[in-house]
Amino acid sequence: MSxxxxxxxxEGQLAGATAHVVAAAQAIGGDIDVLVAGEGVQAAAEAAxxxxxxxxVRVADNAVYAHQLAEPMGALLAELADGYxxxxxxxxxxxxxxxxxxxxxxxxxxxxxxxxxxxxxxFKRPIYAGNAIAxxxxxxxxxxxxxxxxxxxxxxxxxxxxxxxxxxxxxxxxSSFVKEELAQSDRPELGGAKVVISGGRGMGNGENxxxxxxxxxxxxxxxxxxxxxxxxxxxxxxxxxxQTGKIVAPDLYIAVGISxxxxxxxxxxxxxxxxxxxxxxxxxxxxxxxxxxxxxxxEILPELExxx
Length: 308
Ligand SMILES: Cc1cc2nc3c(=O)[nH]c(=O)nc-3n(C[C@H](O)[C@H](O)[C@H](O)COP(=O)(O)OP(=O)(O)OC[C@H]3O[C@@H](n4cnc5c(N)ncnc54)[C@H](O)[C@@H]3O)c2cc1C
Prior knowledge:
Distance between the termini: 50 Å
Largest sheet: 7 strands, parallel
Structural class: alpha/beta
Number of helices: 9
Low-confidence stretches: none
Strand order of the largest sheet: 7-11-6-1-4-5-12
Bound molecules: flavin-adenine dinucleotide
Helix content: 25-40%
CATH class of the largest domain: Alpha Beta
């Protein structure tokens, strides 16, 4: 078995998700290479070389791979995939964008959102918003897999893989980068944060989300939101946690004024410890919470902050 992992990049640096995808590759077994593709990605390649279990880091450093546009990335992977039995990427926006193109180019089926590895050809993945787990077996010669990074603990960083340049430069006349609008934040990235505090419709308005800031500062937490809070315009949609938002599994998840609809639970129920603050003691969120505080969030949040 030989596995190629597509590295996830965040502003040109190696994103935390890659260490989880390498763990999934280790569960499959065999040689593991990591592909770092982008522009000016030497530092990311060096970080990838330190991931435990990685034999080789392959670096495609070229302007055509800047911003990891799906078309050139899919074509690059298709060029490189022949020597491999598996190609893995995280089920991030980039992985979900790129890997189906590789699968189509190679005429194989895509295995999405894998959360566990049974064997080299059999995997588990959630269906019905996480209410059932499907076990799927692939007979394709090349397995193209997106990995839900919360399903695997990150590998360590004591490795020393070799780093080699890839000189494949694909032609890309199909797409071009226009612009990106990034929300600037000093807080940890939602998908990788160890602590997340999320607000729901119960917060009442966007201004009240400031009540979460002090607690987030004290806990080093990222701030998330329910879709109702996003749809109501309280906060931007990159903060949404759930089936159609980000999937998180932090050590601690605090849900404030969130009822606990299944679509929200699909994004956070694998968190290690769940705390719910809600004035309705019958809110479904209490069924998944380890600790529940029944009361008015406008009284509880200031008290919690002062006690922290
Ligand atoms: C296809 C589809 C995909 C979806 N994807 C997502 C998704 O990704 N993420 C997501 O979150 N939702 C998603 N939803 C929406 C989901 O079904 C719910 O509508 C949404 O999660 C509800 O958000 P909420 O809990 O903030 O609001 P509500 O359900 O309105 O709950 C608000 C809660 O706040 C409590 N509250 C109110 N005031 C206070 C107070 N002063 N103090 C304490 N508690 C208070 C209330 O008791 C209530 O429990 C999706 C729905 C569909 C159909």
